[in-house]
Design a protein that fits this description.
2 domains, 7-stranded mixed beta barrel, 5-stranded antiparallel β-sheet, alpha+beta
Amino acid sequence: MILGLAILFSCSKSNEPVETNEQTTSLQTDSLLVAQINITTENAAPVNSKETYVNCSITVKSDNKSWNYSGNGKIRGRGNSSWLWYPKKPYRIKLNDKAEMLGLKSEKDWVLLANYRDPTHLMNTFVFTTGQGLGMSFTNHVRYAEVTLNGDYIGLYMFTEQVEQGSNRVAIDSNNGVLLSLDADDGPDLSPDAGDNFWSSVYQMPVCVKSPDITSATQLTTIRTEFAQLETSIKSADYNSVEKVLNIPSFIDYMLIQELVYNVEVDAPRSIYLYKDKDGRWTMGPLWDFDAGFDFDWSTMYTGHNYFSSYTELVLGTDPVNHTKGYAVPSFFTDLFKSKRFVSEYKTRWLAIKDKIMTGYWKTTQSYGDAIAGALARNASRWPIDKNFQTETLHLHQWLSNRVSYMTTVIANYPVGTK
């Protein structure tokens, strides 16, 4: 079945921002393989810190022999709640030398996502798949691997790229490009002395500069000023002014995905990325971190894996400008809905993509689910939870199907804008 798979989409073959059109090529069946990764730390040292790396050796074995790898690097923990509260830990790997890994372009920094909270192991996969299908630049790729750490089988992980500046990552100028994270956990509230973050001037959002490295107060002030210009234009909701500084199609696709999967972390915000190259416009992305979407039950954050209760809850609400029946997300994400032209383009874009969500992007996501079923069973034995991954995948499918229909009605009834 896998060998016969032909889904009409894939990631962009260019790292240039795609303004309007989806990418439509075939899914590479190699990406459905589950690799085996063995990590051995120096002197069998435990990996128990997010700050301190431990030296290690890494080997990769796969049915695709070109993916096989052996080399040295270092490993540490990563994540916030996923690191603090869950027994299955996520990790960051830094190779000593750049290398292609599992068919992905050469770099040093890689991520192992544990997906412990997600009983399907498909939530990030679905979002990355959708982002690639919509042609969103620098969207992460999906690979799966079963991981052994110091002889201990630690389960199934998603192996993917670290979100960072780089020629094979977010390909902006290393000195004059800017990559920002809007993140309450990475901003000035929790790290007031970090030297690379600030409260935004207009919407008072927590901002962390991921690239370039901040070496002076003047450099940080310049970036802060550039971001304030973006905020000011969005607050004006003047379409002609905004499109000079913002890639509006990327903003539309980004917010459609956030609402589609009910990603309430927009509210904080957390894990929201945007970037601009030298003399370029701001572009939303890369997409990151969606295991708190899909109607996650936050009352069981530390102990439960409960999703999919309701498909009618909204992030932006039925009237985004006024946050009606939605979250009080920063108005950075909603003030553009004051613009008649923006609302018209938002509605048009949804109508253009909605039928592809289940027939294309979910279909590919399900192909990943089928391919990892055996590994998921072994992972469930290693990390037993109160959910069955096969049942939860059915729930995810039904929730998304209902969500698409519901959003079609909600978006059609958005107020048309006042400017």
